Backbone:
């Protein structure tokens, strides 16, 4: 039976693999040692495949380690996470393994892969890349009914101003009465 890793084991093995392969990014913006939180973030962004499940525990395998080391190597080249996602999406599994360049003996011999689709979950990774078009608001017309009241009318033709003032007269009278009482 092939072994799978818990999140903590995956983070520890990935850190060891990044160090052994020399893939640690030199820039300060990208952390060299992959932490559990970073792994969850990369999974949510679609850079890493979704983990498997063993009961309620998440499990990670060989593909996860290879992709994470490849991500770190590409970060070291100055690529953004979006650029890395595009590049990894275009690569076959053997190309990712070649890019990761993990030396022999670093990964356990019995490290397997999570059963199922190894493709990354990209559903949530790109929604912020392009902003949706702003909703088109209907045109608004303003009619000044008194010194303190302006009526806004959405779209369509505007009724006669005199007719609007006659219809608004009870409201204007009420507002004038309240203003007079407050003085």
Residues:
């Amino acid at each position: 039976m092939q072994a799978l890793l818990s999140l903590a084991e995956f983070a520890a093995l990935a850190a060891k693999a990044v160090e052994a392969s020399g893939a640690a990014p030199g820039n300060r913006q990208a952390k060299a040692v992959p932490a559990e939180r970073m792994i969850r973030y990369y999974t949510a962004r679609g850079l890493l495949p979704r983990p498997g499940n063993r009961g309620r525990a998440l499990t990670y395998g060989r593909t996860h380690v290879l992709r994470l080391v490849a991500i770190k190597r590409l970060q070291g080249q100055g690529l953004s996470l979006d650029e890395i996602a595009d590049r990894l999406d275009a690569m076959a599994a053997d190309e990712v393994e070649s890019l990761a360049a993990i030396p022999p003996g670093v990964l356990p011999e019995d490290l397997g892969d999570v059963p199922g689709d190894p493709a990354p979950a990209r559903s949530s990774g790109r929604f912020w890349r392009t902003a949706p078009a702003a909703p088109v608001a209907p045109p608004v017309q303003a009619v000044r009914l008194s010194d303190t009241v302006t009526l806004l009318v959405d779209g369509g033709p505007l009724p006669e101003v005199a007719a609007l003032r006659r219809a608004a007269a009870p409201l204007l009278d009420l507002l004038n009465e309240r203003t007079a009482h407050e003085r």
Observations:
- The two ends are 86 Å apart (CA to CA).
- The domain at 7-100 is CATH 1.10.1660 (Multidrug-efflux Transporter Regulator; Chain: A; Domain 2).
